[in-house]
Amino acid sequence: FAELHAAVPGLPVASSRVLPGIVLRRDFAAYCPADGELRAVLVTEPLRPALTAPGVEFVVDSEGQYQASLRWIATRTEALMKHLQSNNVKLLLSSVKQEEVVIYYAKLYGVSVVECLSSEEMALISEITGVSPYAPFGDNMGREITETAVATFCQPLLLVSKRCVHIGFTSACAFQPHCLILCGPVDGVNEQHAAALQEAFTMLQQLFKTVDQ
């Protein structure tokens, strides 16, 4: 329930509504409008490639080596974004904050980015779509990307002064998510309404639970 409702203070209760899909309460790090269905991937690691393996010290002896390292990082990041583009990936959903070089090449190759998603939001998206996070690096970076979800729409949503991301996914199961936008004059009213609704849904779950005979 926490991931499927958003409280919006400063509006009358009558402005409350139900939206198809899910609402992520953060703004796009990069937004590239796309028409029709689009493919999305989940990632749980930075997409800026590391120069060394974990626990290995990397020593730069000169300014030239440092600049060469930055060029290698930029080239590898661009190659990854080209790979996403060639697999028709238009949306990147990340549980970590991505580096500026990643955002730059995402914009260049038409990939929208939403970052800093919570573990609960990532788990919900995985449950809806049936896909696991994509691991981009390693020997198989050039392989076809199969860990993709299909989004029917992905667009900005303004809730008073808060910029959010509104996404509709093609569900891999019977669960068709909708998000409840709860409006009220102050936070306290919204919290009361949210608590009452959650209790009502819990009661309905208990009412319709299968009873083992």
Automatic annotation (TrEMBL):
The family database entries (InterPro entries) matched by this protein are listed as: BBS10, GroEL-like_apical_dom_sf, TCP-1-like_intermed_sf
UniProt-listed Gene3D superfamilies:
GroEL, TCP-1-like chaperonin intermediate domain
What processes in GO biological process is this protein linked to? chaperone-mediated protein complex assembly
UniProt-listed PANTHER family: BARDET-BIEDL SYNDROME 10 PROTEIN
> Can you name this protein?
BBS10 protein
